[in-house]
Amino acid sequence: MTQRQIILDTETTGLYADNGDRLVEFAGLEMINRQMTDQTLHLYVHPERDMPEEAAKVHGLTIEVLEAKNAPPFAEVGQQIADFLRGAELIIHNAKFDVGFLDMEFERMGLPSIEDLGCKVTDTLTMAREMFPGQKASLDALCNRFSVDRSKRVFHGALIDCELLGEVYLAMTRRQFDLMGGAQSEDEQAGKPQAVAETVRTGRLKVIAASAEELAAHEQYLDELGEGCVWRAAAKTQA
């Protein structure tokens, strides 16, 4: 069975799930086989408390805005969120933060934790720090690194951040996916014949054999190098 992946983000009233802060926005985008599906869950949530000015400056959500959107309290949507996440791999940037808030909200309702829902968590912040040690690993920095357009990101909204994170995650894992033999070219996806070298599979890696035309071009290049060609001298020694 194909593993469901969900690109996930939340917005909150503050930084501390264990000290009275609450979740105010949830977004999750489903991805299967590295393709986004039409299964999306995006909810605004009333925190049942005040909204600190500092938090509103980050995500643009005030209590008045949430009430204008008829945002329900988490108790009315928590089961829906839990059912959406159940058994999926969650792709989250700075996962400790979002998982902490979701677990806090679930516990208030008597619902299972993220772990108990059978979810695997992949933290793209940890991935980025391992891939680019000593460099900035924020979502903005990764968008810049992978040329992901973030011009529509006025505030740190959960939905737009999920969309950006989805593109960043695909870019971060593209090389690994290619090595596992899972990627297809545009021609392959369209069912067109490929005028490229033959692919030989060895284990789970792809070895691309040179075509006759490429081999001929290589020999011509070696001819142009003349008698001092190191490549041919080495080949004769090996023979």
Overview of this protein structure:
By secondary structure, this protein is α/β, with parallel strands linked by helices. It has two domains: 5-179, Ribonuclease H-like superfamily/Ribonuclease H (Nucleotidyltransferase, domain 5), CATH 3.30.420.10; 195-238, no CATH class. The protein has helices at residues 53-59, 63-68, 74-85, 95-109, 124-131, 139-145, 158-179, 186-189, 212-225, 230-238; strands spanning 5-12, 23-32, 35-44, 89-92, 120-123, 199-202, 205-208. It has a five-stranded mixed β-sheet, sandwiched between helices. The protein has a two-stranded antiparallel ribbon with strand order 6-7. Helix 4 links the parallel strand 4 and strand 5 (120-123). Helix 3 crosses helix 4. It is elongated. Mean pLDDT is 84; it is low at 183-203. Its cofactor is Mn(2+); Mg(2+). Its EC number is 2.7.7.7. DNA polymerase III is a complex, multichain enzyme responsible for most of the replicative synthesis in bacteria. The epsilon subunit contain the editing function and is a proofreading 3'-5' exonuclease. This is DNA polymerase III subunit epsilon. GO terms for molecular function: DNA-directed DNA polymerase activity.
TL;DR?
The chain has 239 residues and is of the alpha/beta class. It has helices at 53-59, 63-68, 74-85, 95-109, 124-131, 139-145, 158-179, 186-189, 212-225, 230-238, and strands at 5-12, 23-32, 35-44, 89-92, 120-123, 199-202, 205-208.
Tally of helical segments = 10
Share of helix, binned: 40-55%
How widely separated are the two ends? 49 Å
Global structural class: alpha/beta
Largest sheet: 5 strands, mixed
Can you tell me the CATH class of the largest domain? Alpha Beta
Strand order of the largest sheet: 3-2-1-4-5
Strand content: 15-25%
How confident overall, as mean pLDDT? 84
- H and E order: EEEHHHEHEHHHHEEHH
CATH-scheme architecture of the largest domain = 2-Layer Sandwich
Indicate the low-confidence ranges by residue numbers. Answer: 183-203
Enzyme class: transferase
Keywords: DNA replication, DNA-directed DNA polymerase, Exonuclease, Hydrolase, Magnesium, Manganese, Metal-binding, Nuclease, Nucleotidyltransferase, Transferase
Cofactor: Mn(2+); Mg(2+)
Organism: Neisseria lisongii
